[in-house]
Amino acid sequence: MDANVITTTDLRKVYRSRGREVTALDGVDLAVREGEVFGVVGRSGAGKSTLIRCVNLLERPTAGTVEVAGRDLTALAGRSDRAPAALRAARAGIGMVFQHFNLLSSRTAQENVELPLEILGVHGRRTRAARARELLDLVGLSDDQARAYPGQLSGGQKQRVGIARALAGDPKVLLSDEATSALDPETTRSVLRLLRDLNRQLGLTVLLITHEMDVVKAVCDSAALMKGGRIVESGTVTELLATPGSELAGELFPVDGRASGPDRTVVDLTFHGDSATQPVISQLSRTYNVDVSILGAAIETVDGLQIGRMRIELPGRFEDNVVQIGHLRERGVQVDVADLTAGAEAVK
Fold it and tell me: Taking burial as the number of CB atoms within 10 A of a residue's CB, which of 134, 247, 266, 268 is the most buried?
């Protein structure tokens, strides 16, 4: 995963309506590497969906550039209101999965998958049918489900049809716009496993938009946090967890718990790699004869890597615990000292 497959540079999108301007994207720089699953998270109105629609130019950026697989799509678009042939050809290499499936109710699952093949000019009804059945099988749908209409399918099955349809053009990039937000938790997990399997089997680069941190933990190699049309943090999940004061890491692995009284030091610890399997807290307590209070803890597995976060309380002020904190850092533990005064948290 070395080369960037998706790159946006100083991307801006301004909507104008009734004499007012609304800035949805405000100078977004994004880099998604080949073969990774990259999640963009943020609250409603942060600009996530506008960003992903600008990546395949369903929305025309007001300014900035979008490159996908080495091609500058913004240059291909030119100034014409109608996408030229070069842009349409480039879009064929980009699959798109939508939140509400966007299936044609009058077509069977198989016929929905055949539609983009027709648009792409794949000749021969039998050829299109065979390819559609192959894709539906790839996403785990049976022959009976292939013959069913969308109204006869569950939400998870509809989304699998949507994913099969997105793969019809043999894309190198798959875009997912809140693809699991309309699904129940169990179905969400199964669809995420499917996306990860397709990422690995087909070498797909996946850019997904979500407001759910569990989605990032379950499937993403890298992530970015958006606020107010800007990316405020980005990196691999491992890098973010190792970044002191990372807001995204804190939201991915929240740990609750507050200090019990004055003259106490509250420390947030992140364990990954070798430190996740070592008894560092008990060693700290024995070595320095200090009472360690555990205020909260969470353990998660991200792409096979066990990661733990813990909030502990040490007696005394920060100045009294410098040696103990250094002991933890020497053992590979990420240490953030929380300032909980006045109800706010900062990191030293």
Answer: 268
**166 touches 96 (CB < 8 A):** yes
For the chain, the domain total comes to 2
Summarised one tens digit per residue, pLDDT across range 293-311 is: 888 887 776 656 677 788 8
223 and 334 co-located in one domain = no
pLDDT digit string, tens, across residues 113-149: 999 999 888 889 999 999 999 999 999 999 999 999 9
Give the start-end residues of each E strand in 51-112. Answer: 63-68, 71-72, 94-97
- The packing angle between helices 109-119 and 125-138, to 10°, is 120
Residue 317's domain spans which residues? 253-347
- Residues β-bridged to residue 272: 307
Q: Write the CB contacts of 23 (distance below 8 Å, at least 6 apart in sequence).
A: 12, 13, 14, 229
* pTM score, whole prediction: 0.82
